[in-house]
Amino acid sequence: MDVDASVDRIAQPWGSRTPYGRHEPWPARVDTYLEAGVEPDDVQQWVQAASILHSDGDAMDIAVADGRIVGVRGRAQDRVNHGRLGPKDLFGWQANASADRLTRPLVRQDGRLVECDWDTAMNRVVACSRGLLDEHGPGAIGFYTSGQLFLEEYYTLAVLARAGIGTNHLDGNTRLCTSTAAEALKESFGCDGQPGSYDDIDHADVIALFGHNLAETQPVQWMRILDRLEGADPPRLVCVDPRPTRVAREATVHLAPRLGTNVALLNALLHEIIRADRVDHDYVAAHTVGFDELAFRVKEYPPKRAADICDVPAARIEEAAELLGTADRLLSTVLQGVYQSHQATAAAVQVNNLHLIRGMLGRPGAGVLQMNGQPTAQNTRECGANGDLPGFRNWQNSEHVADLARVWNVDPKTIPHYAPPTHAMQMFRYAEQGSIRMLWISGTNPAVSLPELARIRSILAQDRLFVVVQDLFLTETAQLADVVLPAATWGEKAGTFTNADRTVHLSDKAVEPPGEAKPDLDIFLDYAARMDFRDKDGGPLVTWHDPESAFEAWKRCSAGRPCDYTGLTYDKLRGGSGIQWPCNEQAPDGTERLYTDGISWAHPDICENYGKDLATGAADSVVEYRSLNPDGKAMIKAADYLPPHEEPTDAYPFQLTTGRTVYHFHTRTKTARAPQLNAAAPDVWVEASAPDAAALGLGEGDLVEVTTPRGALRGRLRVTDIRTGLLFVPFHYGYWDTGAGHAPGGDIPGRAANETTVTDWDPASKQPLFKTAAAALRLVERGDGRSAPAPTTAASAPASGAVPATTGGPSALVTQSADGTWDSPEEENR
Ligand SMILES: Nc1nc2c(c(=O)[nH]1)N[C@H]1C(S)=C(S)[C@@H](COP(=O)(O)OP(=O)(O)OC[C@H]3O[C@@H](n4cnc5c(=O)[nH]c(N)nc54)[C@H](O)[C@@H]3O)O[C@H]1N2
Ligand SMILES: Nc1nc2c(c(=O)[nH]1)N[C@H]1C(S)=C(S)[C@@H](COP(=O)(O)OP(=O)(O)OC[C@H]3O[C@@H](n4cnc5c(=O)[nH]c(N)nc54)[C@H](O)[C@@H]3O)O[C@H]1N2
Ligand SMILES: [Mo]
């Protein structure tokens, strides 16, 4: 192993290997990146934080010199990453100091956004809110937030929206991201809450990844798997993904199905496992309901039938089933290839079923990770800043609503619970129809990330809709706003957040925000004060004033609920590693795995919802739930395969899917401002298979156009080993200019993937379908020897030919140190 060396982490995104054997601890490897010219001795302070560009929760320390961030290093003693960092975290912080940060509020005047002071901006927001409350009532106001703020901020927003304004229209972009994770956990276990732990990677003998490009989207856990693959008794991987991801290339069995056929494939896998009687009947009898229904339903899905639907060889399905069925400790992960499709919840639930019928839960190595995507999406869900009530409370359970009202000291009637909290796609519909008149958007860029962008732009541009945007930059969305509020971000504010395996981290403030930018918490607190929200005794509704007091308030709200934070404090979170909830008196050091002792939170009196019909999304009632599941066991729910809503036709002969690359985060507001990351993937591209390219006479680097019934985009072609009939476009590229020369009016007119995607969602989770559309492909202009601006290091690797390798050069060198011994920042800070 060549740790203790410098590695170009653009050329080698995963760094060097530290192999380890099954059931052994994962060795530490501390990754450090300091900007050019800064030596370790120049660092005046290391400030504890965790990464904010994916849901892994990699712990890191921010290097500060002369009041500036000058680098980062991983925290060796943290349970999540043991010191490692991915490329986005090593380089992405540079965006904080970008010269084009918003430093003052803006308001629209005579059609243009002009700078103003905070009073002017907030007074406009307050005047609009008051006017709408008087004339139209709380339903005229909507809040669309993020999976990237901090817990304290979501909780404050949830209180002011639900009990202050009294609106039901509060959701996060988590709707686009992890609403299926939450829904699948509710459907199977009665409540949100990740059963598994990342440590399961150390113990599993089979790891199955469903629609999850772990290598690029959580690169540190992929390093962990790579290290195990080089150690004793390595795990075997099953990968279900239509693209040749790094995960697919390392897999023992790779299934590359047609888009939108996950349920058929999973039903066939379950069919084989039940047929061969690899069922843990004791576990099923003790802890579940619904097995017979599943056994009956999947009888109709022999591998041959699924092979026809999914277009994968039946023999491969049987091999995968053999691995899954004989695993001694099975770990499964699920992400957007499943969640962003028309049967999202139905498919995700089948993965839960696989674990339930095999009794693969609650033991080291046996776990399910219904993954999160965004760094703080878990907190959006817990705090009820998405379509749920805070603390995983059930809006249909009047005891839960009363309990929440007690915590907030308000009348239960104040908290809307006449209908399910409004989901984001519906909020945009209400804004389109005119019933929502004010939309406050924080920490998300819907003018690039929502489906069918032409429609989104026209909704946001309406005169009758008052749009508030709270962001770091003048994004595509901010440009359409009436008021723009400049926010402080990670590194400039303190707060906590929770990763995909329930690990809570504290991220401390390292430097001052630029200009007049303020932490989101301060903005929400300021609004609550100006609106003078009151509790039922006339006291202030929001009683906290800073991150730590907000955290203490949240702890009271979480008490006794599954996501119990009562055993955590800021001090405790400064003690070394992040800590997994529930953390309370019974579990003062946190809880590594849920459901070690059967199913705990599905009881009708405790559960977060009463379940839904997976095909229609219709909510079940408490009466139905009690009769199905009186004792609160895990629920095995079967589902039939239904074809995707949009299938290829003569005019649109391809399937089109969209997603990510390892170097960029979403709409690139941060990663495009980090030179190493931007250079690695500077512009959009289109992936197609070699046979398809040949049939159309297309080659690497040709400028092509992808068209769907919604719209079109242009990008250069990358020919890869993707399945035939499938196109892939990364969704990172909006229409502002990053210096790469492709602004609107540049040489490529439309390049955002979401110009082409459809307004449609999974019936149960309401998550939009970014992963299935029918599309046409045509040549615009020959590449004449150019190559696509697509990385060669990962899923977009060229099938063949002379494409220059993606490298970072001297500015991308990162130090890896093998010995995890170093002074803790707490010591150094003193
Ligand atoms: N580098 C990077 N990392 C990130 C992010 C980022 O923007 N960049 N974003 C973070 C966030 S918010 C999220 S949600 C996660 C997302 O993380 P992932 O879900 O891993 O990422 P995606 O690229 O959206 O999609 C994963 C895979 O789904 C496959 N897929 C497409 N259609 C289907 C299908 O019908 N069936 C199956 N089985 N697979 C299909 C695609 O080929 C793709 O490889 O990443 C997080 N981490
Ligand atoms: N076609 C297609 N579309 C997709 C997806 C896909 O796979 N394909 N994936 C979907 C998924 S999973 C996701 S998560 C979404 C992501 O979509 P978005 O959330 O819209 O993408 P981001 O670029 O992360 O936008 C976050 C915004 O918040 C700002 N920001 C960052 N930190 C802070 C902060 O501390 N405070 C404030 N106020 N602002 C901050 C950033 O500058 C940025 O403008 O995209 C979805 N859209
Ligand atoms: Mo996401």
From TrEMBL:
Domain of life: Bacteria
Compositionally biased tracts (Low complexity): 787-810
Keyword Iron-sulfur applies: yes
Keywords: 4Fe-4S, Iron, Iron-sulfur, Metal-binding, Molybdenum, Nitrate assimilation, Oxidoreductase
InterPro entries: Asp_de-COase-like_dom_sf, CT_Nitrate-R-NapA-like, MoPterin_dinucl-bd_dom, Mopterin_OxRdtase, Mopterin_OxRdtase_4Fe-4S_dom, Mopterin_OxRdtase_prok_CS, Prok_molybdopt-oxidoreductase
Organism from which the protein derives: Streptomyces roseolilacinus
GO molecular function annotation: 4 iron, 4 sulfur cluster binding; metal ion binding; molybdopterin cofactor binding; oxidoreductase activity
Cofactor(s), names only, from the UniProt record: [4Fe-4S] cluster; Mo-bis(molybdopterin guanine dinucleotide)
Protein name in UniProt: Nitrate reductase catalytic subunit
Pfam family, one: Molybdopterin
GO biological process: nitrate assimilation
Similarity comment: Belongs to the prokaryotic molybdopterin-containing oxidoreductase family. NasA/NapA/NarB subfamily.
Domain 4Fe-4S Mo/W bis-MGD-type: 44-100
Region ranges (Disordered): 782-830
